Amino acid sequence: MSIAERLPVRSGAGKRAVLLGSLFALMIVAGMTALSFGAYPVNLAQVIHSLLTGDVDRAGLVIAQVRLPRIVFGLLVGAALGGSGAALQVMFRNPLADPGLIGISSGAAFGAVATIVVGGALAPGFMAWASYYAVPAMAFVGATAATVLIVAIGQVNGRVDVALMLLAGIAINAIAQSGVGAMMFIADDQQLRTLTFWTLGSLAIAGWDALPVIACAILLPVGLLAVKGASLNRLLLGDVEAAHLGVDVRRLKRLVVLSVALSVGTAVSFAGAIGFVGLVVPHLLRLLAGPDNRIVVPGSILGGAVVMVLADLVARTVAIPEDIPIGLVLGAVGGPFFLWLLLARKWRVL
Amino acid sequence: MTISLRQVCAGLSGKRVLHDIDLTILPGQVTALVGPNGAGKSTLLGAMAGDLAVERGDVALNGRNIRSIMPRERALLRTVMRQSFDISFAFRVRDIVEMGVLDHVPERQRPFLVDRALQETDMTAFRDRPVTRLSGGERQRVSFARAVAQIRSSDHLDCARYLFLDEPTASLDMAYQALILNQARSFAEQGLGVVVVLHDLNLASAVADRILLLGGGRVLADGGPAEVVREDVLGSVFGAPVSVFDSGGRRHVAVRLGG
Amino acid sequence: MDIDRFSRRGVLAGLAATAALLPGASMAVQQTRIVSVGGSITETIYFLGRQNLLVGSDTTSSYPDAAKELPKVGYMRNLSVEGVLSLEPTMLLLEEGSGPPVALDSLRSVGLRIEQIADAMTIQGVLDKIQHVAALVDAGPEGEALARSVRLRAQAIGKTVGRVKRRPTVLFLFDVKDGALLTAGRNTAVEAIVGLSGGKLVFDEFEGFRPVTAEAVQHADPDFILLMRHVSDRLGGAEAVAGLPVLSHLRAARDQRVVDVDGLLLLGFGPRTPDAVQTLARRLHGEEAVPALFEPLLPG
Lengths: 350, 259, 300
Known about the structure:
The structure holds three protein chains of three kinds. Chain A has helices at 3-6, 12-36, 44-53, 58-91, 104-122, 124-130, 134-153, 162-186, 189-200, 211-226, 229-235, 239-244, 249-271, 277-289, 293-317, 326-346, and strands at 155-156, 159-160. Chain A is an all-alpha fold. Chain A has one domain (3-346): ABC transporter involved in vitamin B12 uptake, BtuC. In chain A, β1 and β2 (159-160) form a beta hairpin. The longest helix of chain A has 34 residues, at 58-91. Chain B is α/β, with parallel strands linked by helices. Chain B has one domain: Rossmann fold (3-Layer(aba) Sandwich), CATH 3.40.50. Chain B has helices at 41-49, 71-77, 93-100, 110-120, 136-153, 174-189, 201-207, 225-228, 231-238; strands at residues 3-12, 15-25, 30-34, 56-61, 64-65, 78-81, 162-166, 193-197, 210-215, 218-223, 242-247, 250-255. In chain B, the strands form three sheets. Chain B has a six-stranded mixed sheet, sandwiched between helices. In chain B, α3 (93-100) runs parallel beside α5 and α4 packs across α5. Chain B starts with a strand and ends with a strand. Chain C folds into two domains: 2-22 and 29-140, Nitrogenase molybdenum iron protein domain (Rossmann fold), CATH 3.40.50; 165-285, Nitrogenase molybdenum iron protein domain (Rossmann fold). In chain C, strands 2-1-5-6 form a four-stranded parallel sheet, sandwiched between helices. In chain C, β5, α5 (101-109) and β6 (113-117) form a beta-alpha-beta unit. In chain C, α6 (123-136) packs antiparallel against α7 and α7 (140-163) packs parallel to α14. Chain C is globular, with a radius of gyration of 21 Å. The two termini of chain C are 29 Å apart. Chains in contact: A-B, A-C. Chain A binds chain C through residues 38-41, 58, 61-62, 65-67, 185, 188-190, 192-194, 196-197, 200, 202, 204-207, 316, 320-323, and chain C through 1, 71-75, 77-86, 88, 97, 99-103, 105-106, 109-111, 207-210.
């Protein structure tokens, strides 16, 4: 019995509201906790007071300009990965789907890396015009191209063939990664440094400048996914069955593809390739609340945000003053945790 | 208000399956689609339900081109039950049935519709079971319960509605075959147009007001059981020697084995 | 860790306060607190006698030994924003190439003064670096003196090296991976220092750092193999390096002509550059051709 079923609330909508409300509160708590810790020692209460009274000191600046933007960014990246993972697992009818597994992250990586290395040479006008946004824009293009290719290859007679899709994902991954390798080979030292930083994955972000664009590019698509829970449930029964129940299947799949590509493409292009969250968080949600996508999708958005911001807290504080790549933290903690989850299920402890 | 097909030619993945189909499905009746394997029964059902675009001709539901009706509205007007469904996650039976309750139904009413559908299909005992642990036959019954929930969602409508059942009895034992077909009959009496694809000619003969016999993508016979269930007709279409006899006021068919 | 930092900060603060009273020192009301990123920059500050202003450095700052004791703010190319800020610096002195750019942007947005020092690959570049740093830490006279000393040494060793006729070929080993060797080509600090020492890089078809195959290495057949000491240590020492499959058949490996030099000394292009040239030149040309002209430069 999941936690959702144990709740003493009658209606389905009521239960969903309680669970999602709790997750939202958890997200706020996680955010506040993350805000309180870092390499720079601050007393959060004092800082908030000083920010409100306009008497801003160095500590206030660190919170406002360095730590808070990073936390907001972390929440957004987590939301993108969590929500997209949940939606993809539904669309591919496969609990193992994850944005990284099916080439979206490596497609974004190739787009970003190619822009860094040959962008200036091939399209100087575009690079000058787009400036700061050139890399994220091309990462998005790469992510979409990879997704569309894989979905197209995986279709047989209008039906999604899961095995074919996974194989297509492996192939596209390999191609994109060799493309990244080729770019690294021809890169000069300066570009190589930029590349390496990108692929390590980090939530470091310089102030608030890019955040409004990032927020729109992530919140809009995952917001659209969050309200499609009922249709996504029906999609799980099969394309034809879903159509019988009133779902415009082609439009829904297009929405999922575009939303995942836009949100994950944006997240990954600014933060580097971060995996794992998209795979594990939806499973955690299903464990807590059952497989109903009216909870799992919005829940994964909130849950992903929580996981990301807490993982970044660890990355920022476990080896002060070093900033550990966040992928390392997710793998080191998330990996064993997921393994435990699988075994606990297998041995019917859960 | 009917479903009418005019000069319909349709196919699957490039291969033409149906040729020049002209027919009208009336509400308030049970129509059985029978015929040998590959005759095109499921394709015809798909065309009638608006699942596939026809290559030639048109399909109209209550006077409107069925493909031009939005999926949401189509779901109100017609319900389809197929043999089984895929599921990769551990939904419970009541969750699957709730997927049949259409979106316009307000939150408060949804659990009642679900429970009612479970009751009508004798599935209340299965309510909280995970579908991943059900047998094929049990899943089929869940499919039917979901279809019932869908129909009950649109009970408020005035216009004619339709129910399509594709081999609904395939994995079921006799008690549940009877339950589903009785329920189908009952829907017809409530005014729905019911179309059932059946392999079993005896069942067709027992439940249907009208039998459409398909062969090679064409309608070879169209009429009541008395007209269609005949040795000469069935023998030539199925290519097997059959015996037809009357018993208990119904037509029965048996394959003649041996020499 | 926190306690250590606190007491160290207290000592440095005390020193800074004392330094403020000395004539010629900074007349600013605020104490100067410098975080220095880049081994050669930190090294220069010590040579200028301004180490009392340092409150932190990066992990590449390994000379002199005292620099290793400074609080660290991360690797030069992966600085931690909050780590830097937690040391309450008034100025961040960076070697060109420090990063990541995002961290530098972030630090600028908080109002931290960031001064970037250009990379050097020539003696003149080293002198410019010294002058630039000296100006920023208010050590004009010391800077002049240091620059003069470095220039004289460079001229002396340059003359001696110039007299040697032959230019031996050198293979630089940056790293070994899967049987391929990562080496340096044109336009690198490696090429510069090898050139100053009277040698020639065996690979000059490409720029920057590239992987080359064992076959290419065989074909190149260098006179010497050069690598940084920490890489040599990692591989088990100079003899083990000579025994690596990708190198073992080379003349240079068989004759034990493997030269390992401290990385910062060799490639840092700081005030000890003439020392590096002397050390390398003596190995490349022999101790008779290149006598020891001067003792190593020491800070303080």
